[in-house]
C-alpha cells in the first residue's frame, strides 16, 4: 500500500470519529433538555402559570419562593390601587397648614385652594381637615382624616377684633365647634363665639388654625398661640386694608390733579406711558390698578430719605424709595385725570421696624383707596409690608415738601 493511500485512509478515519463524537454529544444534550421540559417548568412557563392560575409550584423551593414574591407584589399593587385618595394623614394636613399660614402671612388674605398631597382642596374644606387634626392631636390620636367636600360659604355678619394669647384647651374647643357646625349644616361658620364672648370670624379661624398646626413640635400642639387680627384686617376682608381707606369728603380736587416738578403729570413721556398702560381698561379702578401693577413691577425699591429723583426720573431709572415711587405713580394717574394724594405716616414695617413712610391714596368713586408701591407683596388696596393696626398718620399732601 502506498504512503499516499495510507494517509488518505487515516484522514478518513479521523473525520468519521469526529462525526460520531458530535452525534453522541448532540443526543446527550437532547436528553438533558427533554428531562427539564418534562418535569420542571421554564422561567417563562412559570411566570405564565403564576399569572394565569395564581398558584404555586411545589416542585422545588426556588419556584415556591418566586411565586410567593409574585403574589406578595400583586397584593401590594392591589392595595395601592384600592387606597382611598380622599383619606389624608395628619402629617400631610400639617405640612399643608404651614404652606397656608405662610401664604396668609405674606398676602393677608386667604387663598381659594390649598394643595394637600398633590390634591387641590378648597380652603373651606381644608378648615374642616385642620379642625379634625387639632382635635386628634389634643387627644393624642393618630387617626387619618377623610376629606369632606362641598362645604358651602355663609353670608358675612359682624365680628370682632381678636387679640391675645389662646390656650390649647381653647382652640381644641373651637375646633370641636367648627366640626360640629360643619357636620350639622354642611357650611362653614361665619363666626364662632369664644369663651370671652368675642366673635372670631371664619377667615381668622382659618388663619389661627394654620398658625397652630404650623407651630407643632414633637407631634404635640403648642400650649399657647398669640393672635392679633383686627376686624378690618385684610385677612377678614379679602385682602383689603380697610383701615387705610377713607371716605371722600367734598373738597376741591384740582390740587390732587396738579402737575408739579416732583409729579410731572403733564409731561409728554408720562402721558403717553399712562395711556399705553391703561389702553385696555375702561373704569377708573381698573386704570388705577393697571398703573399700580406696572409701577410695582418696573420700579425697584431703594432705601434713602426724602425725594432724590422725582417721578419722571424714577420711572426712567426704574428705581426709587417710597417717596419717589409715589411720585411716579401719582404722575401717571394724574395724567389721565385720576385724583391722587400723598399720605405721610409712621409705619411699623415687618422687617425694618418703625420708619417714616410715604404712600398714596387714589380716589375711586367716593373712596380714597390705599396704594403702596414699596412692598413687592402689596396689592392694589392692600398693604402687607407694614402693620395697618398700629400706623400713625401724620399728614395728607397734594405734594410732598421734601
TrEMBL record:
Location of the Transglutaminase-like domain: 314-375
One Pfam family in the UniProt entry: Transglut_core
InterPro entries cross-referenced by the UniProt entry: Papain-like_cys_pep_sf, Transglutaminase-like
Superkingdom of origin organism: Archaea
Region named Disordered: 42-83
Compositionally biased residues, Low complexity: 51-83
Protein name: Transglutaminase-like superfamily protein
Organism: Methanobrevibacter curvatus
Species classification: Archaea, Methanobacteriati, Methanobacteriota, Methanomada group, Methanobacteria
